[in-house]
Design a protein that fits this description.
By secondary structure, the chain is an all-alpha fold. It has eleven helices and no strands. The longest helix is centred in the first third of the chain and has 28 residues, at 33-60.
Length: 213
């Protein structure tokens, strides 16, 4: 329904009609449209997390038992699961990252009590990559946000149709580039020692410069 009519046109009454039940049946469970859409988003994140865990199990089963192989397989599986979910469930994915999902005041990125929270799963995987020596200990600090943002970014582009003109193989190659660059960057200690690009600028001087230009 949301894919066909959009979020703005979605209503509990329309949902009830689609399901063939009385509106009162839905109102007994959800107070309004917002409550139902939030519940859909929560279920969406759980579904994403479960698919992430399932694919990790499959990938790990295909590699040797070394800590490096396992942690690398889990990382790759997590990114692949996220990207696949975005492609196959694009409407739900975009709803989850809108006002009723991540934009909701009661939503938390770092819900450590939820074993299906994708952010928490990724956080644990990065710890495994660090412990196995595949990424730098210093680069690991705070890397979960950057890693999540990179994987989410390319997935969101795919879900939105931004890669139109590319076939499926070419879209997946974009994800592979992101994964390679993430791991490469987290291995590189020099990135952490790069000079700051932040400049102290006097606002008065800036205004005068702009006026002269």
């Amino acid at each position: 329904m949301i894919a066909e009519h959009g979020v703005d046109s979605f209503s509990l009454r329309r949902a009830a009609a689609e399901l063939g039940v009385a509106p009162s049946a839905i109102y007994r469970h959800y107070s309004d449209k917002s409550a139902l859409l939030k519940a859909i988003c929560v279920e969406g994140f759980s579904l994403l997390g479960q698919q992430w865990l399932d694919l990790m199990g499959s990938y790990v089963a295909s590699v040797d038992s070394s800590a490096q192989s396992i942690s690398l397989a889990r990382f790759s599986a997590g990114a692949d699961a996220y990207f696949r979910f975005a492609l196959e469930q694009s409407v739900l994915f975009q709803l989850m990252y809108g006002e009723f999902g991540t934009g909701s005041a009661d939503w938390s990125l770092e819900d450590e009590n939820d074993p299906l929270n994708p952010f928490t799963i990724l956080d644990d995987i990065l710890d495994e990559l660090r412990d196995s020596g595949l990424i730098s200990k210093r680069a690991r600090v705070g890397a979960e946000v950057a890693a999540y943002a990179a994987i989410h970014g390319v997935s969101a582009l795919a879900a939105s149709g931004a890669f139109r003109g590319k076939d499926e193989a070419q879209m997946w190659e974009q994800l592979e580039i992101v994964k390679r660059n993430l791991l490469s960057g987290l291995r590189n200690e020099d990135v952490l020692n790069a000079p700051s690009t932040v400049m102290e600028i006097d606002p008065v001087t800036l205004i005068r410069t702009l006026k002269r230009s």
